[in-house]
Amino acid sequence: MHPSVSLLAFAAAAGIIILFSQLSAGCKFNIQDGVATRFFIEPNALVIFCLNNVTAQHVTTTHVIAQAHVHKGNVTVSLDRELQDGRYANGSNVGVVSSLKDGDDLTRWFLVSYVSDSNDKHVTFMAKTYGDSDPVPGGCNLELPLKNDPNIYLSNIGSHLSAIEFAYGDSSAEWKCGSALSKNSVQYDVYQFFMHERDLSAEHFHSVLGEILDPRYVTSNALYVKSLSSDDVTRLKFPAYSGIGTVFIVIMTVTHDNVITRASYVPTVTYFCVDLEKGCSGEDELQIKIVVSVLALVGLFICFCGHRFFKTEMFFFGVLTAMLAAYILLERFSWWDFSTNLYISIGAGVAGGVIWWAVWVFFGVPPISVALVTLLLGYVLASIVFNASPLGKIYKCTTVKYARLLF
User: I need a labelling partner for 300 at 20 to 30 A (CA). Which of 89, 129, 142, 364 fits?
Assistant: First the structure.
């Protein structure tokens, strides 16, 4: 037989074998390694995603991270047809880690979408293979639901702050979690990406997800926030911007013998909305409006009548300074909600106002009284510069940009 005929016969036989293996596995969608694809999924219907030739990209492929994202509603991604504890994830932006055995060349995931009929029914799905020297995001998890948990968990603190949390990763399949070699070589780079303001559409959501799942796009276009080590707490606060879709991304980097390997956690998306179905509004908007209105009236009074009632002016500046300082400290070092921090800050502001009023009454030194006003003016100017200019991009010292709390 001619060699070319034998080669064609072999290729045809291989294709038939792959086809029968897919049919026996019940695959609904076949996906490509590392390619984010949008699929139309009927609600409450079980579908199976399959990835073939999982060993083609690496000498030794050890694990695959699969993730699914929906605009509104939830989706469940499972490693098994029947849900088993620790082997599935449920949410709007979720993923699972599939650990491979020798000889595995076909990996599949079971997905059910829980999206109402009135919402977009598309799901952005991606699976990425990794080798034995690549890190495993969430591979050192001790608290969160999955054994290997690559998800970023989001919690809103009122309507003005949000917190993310993720599990520690395993530096590779070769090193044990917690070892000195593993801990010292790991770095977690946290990024934040903002969607178009007030664009709550599903089309924009899936378009952004299709790009943001590529780590190279993240490092080039997303806002770098902070790098964490294995000794840091993997829980961070962020200011909330209601109506602006925000994507949180964590890229795990491992450096060993001058070799750098990376893997991404599953990004999570939030619009900081109470009810995305009804639009976008904050839980504490009424309180914020009241505080802002009162401060506006006080500002007008000080602007036009301040020196006529100088003691009252000193009291108001003492209130504003102490309230602002207390609020910033509470937001930085406490996990209380917005209302609690606001009430405590108001109490601290009143105490500060009384103290500053007493300083003027008992000492009557103009430079001291004017110094507080000057400090507040400097804070306002610094806030404007670091929030509305390119200089703000160099600010990476903490997880919350306190200059933005003023605006």
Answer: 364
331: nearest Cα among 162, 166, 189? 162
For residue 398, what is the DSSP state?
A: S
For 92-118, b/e burial (b = at least 16 CB within 10 A) is bbbbbbbebeeeeebbbbbbbbebeee
Please compute, for residue 367, the number of CA atoms within 13 A of its CA located in the half-sphere on the CB side: 0
Main-chain phi, psi angles of 332, to 5 degrees:
-80, -40
DSSP letter string, 105-139: -EEEEEEEEE--TTS--EEEEEEEEEETTS-BTTT
- DSSP sequence for 240-267: --TTEEEEEEEEEEEEETTEEEEEEPBP
CA 169 to chain centre: 16
Q: In sequence order, which residues have a C-beta less than 8 Å from that of residue 397 and are 6 or more positions away? A: none
Q: Which of 401, 57, 391, 86 is nearest to 236 (CA)?
A: 401
Residue in 348, 317, 276 with CA at minimum distance from that of residue 120: 276
Q: Which two tokens stand for residue 63?
A: 């694990």
> Alpha-carbon distance 283 to 240, whole Å?
12
Count of Cβ atoms closer than 10 Å to residue 270 Cβ: 21
Give the residue, 188 or 403, on which the prediction is more confident. 188
Determine contact, residues 380/402, Cβ cutoff 8 Å: no
Segment among 13-27, 162-176, 276-290 with least mean pLDDT: 13-27
pTM of the predicted model over 0.85: no
Strand, helix or coil at 50? strand
Query: Cα–chain-centroid distance for residue 211?
Result: 16
Contacts of 67 (CB under 8 A, 6+ apart): 77, 93, 94, 95, 96, 125, 126, 127, 150, 213, 266
Alpha-carbon distance of 354 to 326, in angstroms, equals: 15
Comparing C-alpha atoms, which of 87, 109, 101, 133 is closest to residue 39?
A: 109
3-state SS class at 273: coil
Q: Where are the beta strands (DSSP E) in 46-185?
A: 46-52, 61-69, 74-78, 88-91, 93-99, 106-114, 122-131, 152-157, 161-166
Nearest to 250 by CA among 88, 39, 399: 399
